[in-house]
Structures are given as C-alpha cells and as structure tokens.
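Minutes, project huddle
Topic: does the predicted pose make sense with pyridoxine-5'-phosphate bound?
PN asked that the exact inputs be recorded in the minutes so nobody has to dig through chat later. Recorded below.
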Amino acid sequence: MAKLGVNVDHIATLRQSRGGREPDPVTAAAMAELAGADGITVHLREDRRHIQDRDVMLLRRTVQTHLNLEMAATDEMVAIALKVVPDYVTLVPEKRQELTTEGGLDVVKHQQALARQIELVHQAGIIVSLFIDPDLEQLKASARVKADFVEIHTGTYCDATGKEQAAELDKLEQAIRGGKKLGLGVNAGHGLDYRNIRPVIALGGVEEYNIGHSIISRAVLVGLDRAVREMAQLVHGA
Ligand code: PXP
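Predicted holo structure (tokens), as shared on screen:
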C-alpha cells in the first residue's frame, strides 16, 4: 500500500499573510496524522516565506509518523537538517521568485556538490530523497550520488491534458520502473489532486505521494460551511 505524506506549507502561508500565530502548521500536522496521513512534509525555504525554523523544530518533537524536510541543497539548509534530524530530507531546486518548486533538481549537473551534501546528511542517519523530473539520466545520477529515494516530479503530467497527459503518464511509469531497477525508493509529488492522482496510483510502484495544495484547498472549502455556521451562531446569539 502506498503512503500519503501531507505537505502543510500552505497552512503556514495563511499564517504568514497576517504575521500572527494562526493557523499553526504544527496543529495542522497533528490533525493530518489523526486523519490518516503517513507522513508530514514541510519545505523550509531560504526566504522563510511560509514554514519557519520554529515550525520545523516543533514538528520534529510532535510528528508521530515521519517528518520529511524539503530543502534546497545549500550549506545553510544542510546545517539545519543536521541540527533537526528529520526522518527524511528531500532536496529540491529553489529559486527565490518562483511561486512553487519549478521542475526537478539537475542531479547530473550538480553531482559532486550533491554527493558531498548527501554524505553529510547520511552521517546523521537521515534518509535522503532527490526531487527529479521523470528522466533516466537524472535517475542514474541519483543512484550514483547515493540517494536512497527519488521523488518523481509529477507537475508536468498534472498540467498537461489529452494526449500530452498520456505521454507524461508514460514518462512517469518509465521513471518509476527505472528508479526501482536502480535500487532507489520511488516517491512522487507536485500538482496531484483528487482526480489526476488516480491514473498514477494505477501504475503502482510509488512508495509515497507528497501532496499539499489540493488537500489544503479542499480543506478550506469543506471546512468553510462549519466555520461560517459557528461564527453566525455567535453573532446571532443563538
Ligand atoms: N513535492 C515537492 C518536492 C514539492 O516541492 C511540493 C510543493 O511544495 C510538493 C511535493 C507538493 O506539491 P503540491 O502542493 O502541488 O501538492
């Protein structure tokens, strides 16, 4: 059975929009676990636009499943990972101006630096995953730098339609099989929602799906009815 890792970054985005204390991603993570999440993912970005260092520290102590820390492959982030010791580190490319992670890591190009950082993270007993596009050369390079897992970037598949989407699904299938042949664990994520995930699940072979946006978006809408009712009761004095 595949696992579900829930990304709670968007809860932190909402908190940061007011610079206050709520909603708290630490509370959201506990609720996600109660509802059946198999893991919690947070992306500590270099500009700290959503998740804060405090969140990562607290989550390390409160997460009951496993904590997956997504981060750029920089010396600053590796130092934080060595201090926090999450269960997993997922290395992602990061550009300051992007709205979300755009595309996978270029492991082929950055092989040497990545191998050095992966070794450091491994020494702390942390499992390392690399977020890559569904591409055989990137898979081979990931195995060469001794990653334990790859997370296959599903974003292009999710954005595509019709024949193009079928072709992208094919690429995902080959990447899943290729990764397994190379001895890598295979996760998948980015852009997955309640509809487009079905054909990916049908491929089999993915150990864990990391999903954020679609779950938090649905939570806002399915929770809105109750939230308004409760405030209306207060205001109306019921
Ligand atoms: N996996 C990685 C590596 C990501 O960067 C993200 C987005 O933060 C996700 C999964 C989750 O993507 P989404 O929010 O589109 O579900």
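Observations noted during the meeting:
- The chain has one domain: 3-236.
- The chain has ten helices and eight strands.
No decisions taken; revisit at the next huddle.
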